[in-house]
Amino acid sequence: MGISNLRLTRAKRLLQQARTLLNQIQEDIRTHSFSSDDVRMKAYNDLAASALEIFSEDPVLNAMVIMPDANLQSLGWEYLLKFPEVTSQRTREHLTRLVNRLEILLGEEPTQLDERDFSFIADQKLREVLRLDFIEAQKSFTVGAYKACGLLCGGLIEGMLLDILQRPSVVTKEQLDRVAKKLNLPRTGQSVDWNKVGMTNFIKLSSELEVVSSTALKFAEAVRDVRDTVHPRAEVRQGRVSGDEASILFNLVRLIYNDLVSRFA
Question: How far apart are CA 169 and CA 171, in angstroms?
Answer without folding.
Answer: 6
